[in-house]
Amino acid sequence: MSVTIKQKLRQPTDPEIEVACIQCTGKTAHVALATVDVHGSEGDGAFDWHNEHQLVQCLGCKTLSYRIASSNSEEYYYDADGDIHYEETEKLYPPRTGSSKGLGDDTVYLPQKVRQIYEETLTALSVNAPVLAAIGLRALLETVCKEKSADGNDLFNKIDSLVDKQVLTPAGAQILHKIRTLGNAAAHEVKPHSERQLSLALDIVEHLLKDVFILPKQAESEFEDDA
Fold it and tell me: What's the number of CA atoms in the CB half-sphere (13 Å) around residue 180?
């Protein structure tokens, strides 16, 4: 099968593009500083693909990122006017987790094992590995329970035990049980969950980590002379 690949450096045509910023929260306006188009054709034109490589910069925080936008001749749709549009997938480097900024430098307040699993879970989310991300979220709950000496032989009972220890409210435990179920489905059924579900689950777990580990340490440090 014959394969043809062509590359071309060109000036960016879009004045601004919306890209998830690794520093700012959510998508922000970026400008493309340089663009390289890579076109490929296989099977005498039976299959074509296009990758757009760009160095982009956030117009807010000025952070630089590397962006690859990919499309091919097999994935397309028609709009209401009958015009054809090709589906485009986007990859960003360094990887990021969509609308979440993560815990940033506050991870220094986390116990070492909690921090390690949290960072690995972020990596799984950022590289679009939904099954591993859900398993990581469940593992985070397991590790938090261990750090807080939760009682019970399984995660269900350990989460409920944190209510008895006044680490969680009953309402908070019910929310964590939903993440436990999400992680179980990923681990035992290899079930991928949507980016929206995983992002919400990450937000919930990050709030847990802040409440249980980060804020108490920060308060202890900030107000130690006020006792």
Answer: 18
Given a contact cutoff of 8 angstroms between Cβ atoms, the answer to whether 217 and 149 are in contact is no
Say whether both 68 and 118 belong to one domain.
no
Task: State how many domains the chain has.
Answer: 2
Digit-by-digit pLDDT tens for the chain (227 residues) are 577 888 888 887 778 999 888 888 778 999 999 999 999 888 776 788 899 999 999 999 999 999 999 998 888 788 888 888 888 888 888 877 665 667 878 899 999 999 999 989 988 887 789 999 999 999 999 999 999 999 999 999 999 999 999 999 999 999 999 999 999 999 999 999 988 899 899 999 999 999 999 999 999 888 866 55
Same domain, 161 and 57: no
Please list the residues that pair with 55 across neighbouring strands. 34, 66
Quick check: 195 and 98 in contact, CB under 8 A? yes
Answer whether residue 227 is part of any domain: no
The gap between the terminal CA atoms of the chain, to the nearest Å, is 77
> From the centroid of its chain, how far is CA 68?
17
- CA 200 – CA 186 distance, rounded (Å): 16
Domain of residue 89 covers 3-93
Question: Which residue, 50, 70, 93, sits at the end of a domain?
Answer: 93
Burial of 171 per CB tally in 10 Å (0-12, 13-18, 19+): exposed
- Are residues 116 and 84 located together in one domain of the fold? no
